[in-house]
Amino acid sequence: AGGRLVTAVGGKVVVLVGTALIGGGLLLMSTLPVTGQLAGVVAGMVVGELGFMMAIVPLAIAITAAAHADQRGLAAGLLGTSDQLGNALGLSITVSVAAVVTARLAQGVPTLADYLAGLRAGLWVSIVVAALTWVVALVALRREDFRSTAEHAEHPGEAGTEVASAPQTAD
Predict the structure, then answer these.
(1) Cα–Cα distance between 47 and 25 in angstroms, integer?
(2) Does residue 57 contact residue 3 with C-beta atoms inside 8 Å?
(3) pTM (2 d.p.)
(4) Which residue pairs, CB below 8 angstroms and at least 24 apart, start in 105-112?
(5) Taking 60 as the threshold, does the pLDDT of residue 159 lie above it?
(6) What is the mean pLDDT of the chain?
(7) Burial of 148 by CB count in 10 Å (0-12 exposed, 13-18 middle, 19+ buried)?
């Protein structure tokens, strides 16, 4: 479905909408009241994950299409690895900010309000990162970044369109 959406409206649009949804999901979670509502957390998670799934498909297309034919598997693997490392780094930063803010607000034993304020601070760091990612996508991505590998084969010699030939063997 993601590939069809990229074809219909363009990869850059899908990345921008997806990144905005990621930020929107984080924003939903950051506005929860102290009494908390599981539905609000779940809604934020669903919106954010929908955005992630929208953004990752065109980015995978762009990354693999830009690679030489014999290196597309490596490019896809690097995308997966960077995704995992980015998630771990983002989570560690968010949790660290939350812990520091909670500790600074607490007068002795942290209250639920202290924990929530810390969580909100950590989520706002993530919201800022999502907004910066949106700006980078807006400025850096180009329509030709999302051309399919079939289109690359039709336009040899252009950046990212080289198709590796089969290795020659001596008879």
Answers:
(1) 5
(2) yes
(3) 0.79
(4) 112/34
(5) no
(6) 84
(7) middle
Give residue 21's Cα distance to chain centre. Answer: 10
Compute, in degrees rounded to 10, the torsion defined by CA atoms 133, 141, 5, 152.
Answer: -140
Handedness of CA 156, 157, 158, 159 (dihedral sign): positive
Residue 49 to residues 18, 28, 45, 72, 77, Cα–Cα distance (Å):
9, 13, 6, 25, 21
Beta carbons within 8 Å of 160's beta carbon, 6+ residues apart: 65, 66, 67, 152
The pLDDT tens digits of the residues spanning 37-55 come to 788 889 999 999 999 999 9
CA atoms 80, 26, 127, 99: torsion sign: negative
Summarised one tens digit per residue, pLDDT across range 26-39 is 999 998 887 767 88
HSE of 27 in the Cβ direction (CA atoms, 13 Å)? 12
CB under 8 A, 24+ apart: contacts of 29-33: 29/123, 30/119, 30/120, 30/123, 30/124, 30/127, 32/116
